[in-house]
Amino acid sequence: xxxxxxxxxxxxxxxxxxxxxNFGEITDEKTAFEIMDRAIELxxxxxxxxxxxxxxxxxxxKKGFGTSEEIIGRWLAQGNRRDKIILSTKLYQxxxxxxxxxxxxxxxxxxxxxxxxxxxxxxxxxxxQMHHVDRNTSWQEIWQSMELLRKQGKITYVGSxxxxxxxxxxxxxxxxxxxxxxxxxxxxxYNLTNRSIESELIPALRYYNTGLLVWSPIGMGVxxxxxxxxxxxxxxxxxxxxxxxxxxxxINLYHExxxxxxxxxxxxxxxxxxxxxAVTAPIIGPRSVQQLEQSVRALDINLSEKTLERLDQIxxxxxxxxxxxxxx
Length: 328
Hints:
The chain is α/β, with parallel strands linked by helices. Helix content is 38%, strand content 14%. An 8-stranded parallel β-barrel has the order 3-4-5-6-7-8-9-10, surrounded by 5 helices. The chain has a two-stranded antiparallel ribbon with strand order 1-2. Strand 5, helix 3 and strand 6 form a beta-alpha-beta unit.
């Protein structure tokens, strides 16, 4: 396993992160335990979850929410595991029907962290991430609440997720004014089929030396190759089928390139994400130990300049960083 610092912190994290979104919804508890055990054996030390993972959104906002955290909590309760992982979770999305059961208010932050700690059966969260920007709550309120949690020992680092470049910049500037650590990382969608963050978010992260954790590195399965017909996972969802159909020509060209490389398309997609120096780690969501082991192979693949050029031709990005990519 390879390791790197999380942003400008001294924390060392593995170059592959284990995502647990499938736990409880697609992956049963026994398999989840096997995946987590094997992840540790492979040297993966950052496990990512969220309070809403493991459930489906329903009118009562309760069905299955918190299941992923609960499964991780029962795994941790077996003993001798907690100090082997960097545990990250998220808050923001509604966990119940109350008007204040969502967002980033001081009220919700206080309740959300305690609920997550209970489900995770631990006394601290290593990386506490805001799952989405909340522009109805001031950064002063957010940072004061996060600093209180840090002083209480409930969290160690703070991260964001799904933030725009200017959201990250604003948060980091206000944190600097308050003389606090600020954001250790941003978690964002990034893959060959969706490269929009190259325009403004990645430059902002680079300027503030903020880590980048990548979700959906294989495009929600679109870049998953032979498993596109899998009827047991998210790839069988209608919107994924629509994306596959819309990108059919590009996918065919991509598969042709992967065959030439003699590598699995999903592994090539991960290797491409990893080649970007701005990326701390892609978050993988294996449904089996075999998928986990296959994903780690991406660390050993070095994509040539010629291959990178062909990937750019098949999956064009935004044309560089803003404003040069649309102005002068």
